[in-house]
Design a protein that fits this description.
two-stranded parallel sheet; 4 strands; elongated; two-stranded antiparallel sheet; mainly alpha; about 200 residues
Length: about 200
Amino acid sequence: MARLGEGGDLLKCSFCGKSQRQVKKLIAGPGVYICDECIELCNEIIVEELAETAQTNLKELPKPVQICRFLDEYVVGQDTAKKALAVAVYNHYKRVQSQDSEPAGKKSESSVEIAKSNILLVGPTGCGKTHLAQTLARMLNVPFAIADATSLTEAGYVGEDVENILLKLIQAADFDVKRAEKGIIYIDEIDKIARKS
């Protein structure tokens, strides 16, 4: 049975004007109502805008010199590491960008394939390895997740497993999987694993 408003008239969505009988659910707010259909439409608009924002970020990929200058503003010293990271990050996102621009399964003969690479930062405690990675993620506006290698286990019985690391990244991306695909995973204390085995 439909509820009636204060004036005795049927409740309506404040956005589309549909009555309570025409929709599945009508949610009440202070003096306003919104139906499930309008909520769905708003959600689709937000998802589209977030996807467009993520795509435009990669289209405006800064050059290695710009990345290095940005890192100079936030990280003191470590010039060699900053230059190497700037070039590696630029190449990585250039590769991601070129893969995104080509239709699935179709590669032209003229397309250049950029090799995938990971980055290993080595240095004493407190020299800024984590800070460099976090600053890069902030500059590129990509999600960032840190995992401690000492707590990782192959099967995940005792510590964390790979799925937990990916879950952290997806959470950092506000559960937007497309955005998480372009994120950064930082595995800390990896040298401790070598000492154990």
